[in-house]
Amino acid sequence: MGARLARKTFEWGWTMRKVIVCSLLLGCALARGQEYRATILGEVRDPSGAAIPNATVKATKEDTNVSRETVTNAVGVYTLVGLDPGRYTVTVTAQGFATVRREGIILQVAEKLNLPITMEVGAVTESVTVVGEQELIQTATASRGLVFDPIKVQEIPLNGRQAYMLLRLSPGVMFTQRTFGSTGYSGTRAWDVNGAFSMNGGRTGTNQFLLNGAPISTQGTFDLAPNVEAVQEMKIMVNTYDAQFGRSGGGHVNTTLRSGTNEWHGSVFDFWRNRILDANTRQNNAGGQPRGFRNQHQFGGVLGGPIRRDKDFIFVSFEGWRERVPFPSVTTVPPMEIRGGNFNFIPTGERSPILIFDPLTSRACGQPGTNCISGGIYQRQPFPGNVIPPTRLSTVGRNILNLYPAPNFNPQSLQQNFLRPDNLGRYRYEQPIARWDHMVGDQDRLYVVFTFQDGSEYRNQNGFYPPAEQGNMPGTVRRNVGAIVSFDHLLSPTRILHVQASVNRFIQNFPNVSDPKFTWDKLGIKNLPLVPTYPSKLPPQVAVSGYTTIMGSQFMNESSRQQVNFQANVAQTSGRHSMKYGFEWAQLIHHTRASGNVGGSWSFATTWSQEHYGRRRPTPLDGSGVADLLLGYMGSGSMPYNDSTLRREPYVAWFIQDDWKVASRLTLNLGLRYDIQFPFYEIHNRLVSGFAFSTINPISDRALDNWRRFAATTANYPAPPDAIRGGLLYAGVDGQPRRIFNTDFSNVQPRFGFAYNFISKTVMRGGFGIFHRRASETVITTGFNQSTDYIASVDGGRTHRAGLTGPHSLESPFPDGLIPPLGAKGGLLTNIGTSVSFPGRQRPIPRTFQWSFTLERELPWNMVLEVSYVGSLTNKEGRSIQLSDASKEHWDIALKDPMYFQQTLPNPWYGIAPTNTGLGASNVTSRRNLLRRIPQHTGVSMGTNPWGRAWYNGLQARYEKRMMAETSRAGAITWVLAYTWSKMMENALRQDFTFEWMPFINQIAAEDRTHNLAFAGIWDLPFGKGRAWLNNMGKVGQALLGNWRANANLIYQTGVPLSAWTGWEFLCGNPLAVQRNENNWFNRDRNCYRQLLPFELVQLPARFSQIRSHTAPQLDLMLSKRFRLRERYELEFRGEAFNATNTPLRGDPPSTNPSDAQFGILPVQQLNFPRNIQLGARLRF
Question: What is the reported pTM?
Answer without folding.
Answer: 0.88
